[in-house]
Amino acid sequence: MNPNDASMPAAAERGDLTSLGIGLVSSHTEVAKAAEAMLRERYSWADATDAETLVALGGDGFMLQTLHEMLESGRSRPVFGMNRGTVGFLMNDWRLDLLAERIAGAKAIRVAPLEMTARTVSGDVASHAAINEVSLLRETRQTAKIEVSVNGRVVIPELVCDGVLVATPAGSTAYNLSAHGPILPLAAKLLALTPISPFRPRRWSGAILQDDTCIRFTVLEPENRPVSAVADQFEVRDVAQVDVSLGRKRSLTLLFDPEHALDERIAMEQFAT
After folding, report:
1. pTM for the complete prediction?
2. Cys-Cys link to 21, which of 1, 155, 161, 176 (CB 3.0-4.6 A)?
3. Catalytic, out of 5, 60, 97, 212
4. Is pLDDT of 101 > 90?
């Protein structure tokens, strides 16, 4: 059932979220489980497996976990997160009351994941999605040496660094920002290509690319200077080559209170002190 359906007010008055197709999931932390118990006492819920909309309780890590489970199952549903974690950048404020009304009035934000295909030194191939970023990281004290290609053209023959990452607009305020990468407006059809502690070229600070760009990283001297590739929390070690592009056909929907939506939060991060 569409959360904006006319039957929403009547169902909400009864505390009935079952008929609205709204399910509840939470992380395993004590704080999140306590919040889940309060919500289950206040409202009736649809089964989370069959629900058309999900409420997720936890932090940003749990939100990413929930979104990745949708990508793996092939079934995407809008998610309204409430922060029972730490930072909660991808979450709404925790409140017990008027939940159905908040979901009905929520602003829908669509995000598309990155698709990473990594080939290891031994020839194995692994594919993972990333909502925030794909990063390549050195595995030992030896700096990594990485060739960077954009749409089939070598743009940096040898990047000597601790690593390099590709970030979506949604992930541009996470690891990318810590690595001094740019903040990308959520509506921008762009990707951030950001080096991590680059040694050579010394003055290369990264690039902003169109989101239809295909990026290839080729690890130079992979046996002597091993590199891992990480798509959000999924790691592939000892990679030889990594391809990254945007997965437009697998977009996800996050629901936010209009006054505190993700696009506004990302924009305001440019003025954070």
Report:
1. 0.88
2. 1
3. 60
4. yes
* 60 included as an active-site residue: yes
CB 137 within 8 A of CB 228: yes
Give the burial string for 176-187 (b: 16+ CB within 10 Å, else e). Answer: bbebebbbbebe
Position 5 scores a pLDDT of 54
| CA–CA gap between residue 129 and residue 233 (Å, rounded) | 10
The amino acid sitting at 189 is K
User: What are the tens digits of pLDDT across the range 190-204?
Assistant: 999 999 999 999 889
Asked whether the beta carbons of 109 and 253 are under 8 A apart, the reply is yes
C-alpha–C-alpha distance, residues 145 and 56, integer Å? 40
Domains delineated in the chain: 8-111+251-271 (3.40.50.10330), 114-248 (2.60.200.30)
Residue 6 burial (CB count, 10 A):
7
pLDDT digits (tens, 9 = 90+) for 111-140: 999 999 999 999 999 999 999 999 999 999
